[in-house]
Design a protein that fits this description.
The protein is mostly helical. It folds into two domains: 4-90, Rna Polymerase Sigma Factor, Chain: A, CATH 1.10.1740; 110-179, Arc Repressor Mutant, subunit A. It has helices at 4-15, 22-41, 44-60, 71-102, 113-131, 135-146, 149-154, 157-179. The termini are far apart.
Length: 182
């Protein structure tokens, strides 16, 4: 078990720029954060990935460490946020995969010929409507659906959200003009 007082000292020293404190701090935090993330996500591989990302973020933000807070709590808070992000990504990917598998929007449908034909027609209509948008708008919408982090990293979060909001509004307008209500 980690001695919390020692962990607090290492975290404070690392936040003050003491490079010698980084290695013992990482050695103490890594297994705890990894176990926590694996339990949180229910998948050891996803947990390890989330823990690595959480630790990278934590060490990148050491200058923001509040010495009045418990270091382990601060580290697990970073891990919690990262695990939530990973969970949302996994859920979104599953939704997209399920929608592609049945040819529709992820809702339960019967797999009779009429239902499949209707699903395919809706997908064709959605793709055709998406193609009416400017490439920049389509790129933002696809990035939001697929969690494309590359595009998100190039933009400030507020900028990405605003572009997505505008692109979705244009998509709705295009859909309404082509197919009626959305």
């Amino acid at each position: 078990m980690i001695e919390r007082a020692q962990l607090d000292r290492w975290m404070a020293a690392a936040a003050d720029g003491d490079r010698a404190a980084l290695e013992p701090l990482f050695a103490a935090l890594s297994p705890v954060v990894t176990r926590y993330a694996a339990r949180f996500l229910g998948d050891p591989a996803l947990g390890e990935d989330a823990a690595q990302e959480a630790l990278v973020r934590l060490f990148g933000r050491l200058d923001r460490y509040d010495r009045t807070r418990d270091a382990l709590t601060w580290a697990l808070t970073h891990a919690t946020w990262e695990c939530r992000t990973v969970r949302r990504r996994v859920q979104r990917r599953r939704e997209v995969a399920e929608a592609a598998a049945i040819g529709g929007a992820g809702e339960e449908r019967t797999h009779d010929g009429a239902g499949l034909a209707e699903d395919r027609e809706l997908v064709r209509a959605a793709v055709a409507t998406l193609e009416t948008l400017a490439p920049r708008d389509a790129e933002v919408i696809v990035a939001a659906i697929t969690d494309d982090d590359e595009l998100r990293r190039t933009l400030e979060p507020a900028t990405f959200r605003k572009r997505l909001e505008r692109a979705v509004a244009r998509l709705r307008t295009s859909w309404r003009s082509r197919h009626g209500t959305l």
